[in-house]
Amino acid sequence: MFYVYILKSLFHGTLYVGSSKDPEKRLNxxxxxxxxxxxxxxxxxLLLYKEAYLIxxxxxxxxxxxxSGQGLKQLNQxxxxxxxxxxxxxxxxxxxxxxxxxxxxxxDEI
Length: 110
Hints:
The protein is α+β, with helices and mostly antiparallel strands. It is 29% helix and 23% strand. The chain contains three helices and four strands, in the order ββαβααβ.
């Protein structure tokens, strides 16, 4: 499985969107250890959300979309709890995404 994940800096409040086979390991071993250029000056980070994909290219496509203008709008909706989905996916869901650019379920208030 491949994941797209969203991190939030606990100190600065900024967001980071990335993709990885193991977001928790990447968070603990790289982001919070200062080994990623963008995130090293904004530690500590908290994993807010992740989406699972069967194919790496689909995860990368979704990551790029979330970093685009329209994707940033959707990202804000995800984090504000405004977007819902009928597929039952949650922030900690391990289910695979079989569609292209699905609408993820909303997060609980953070």
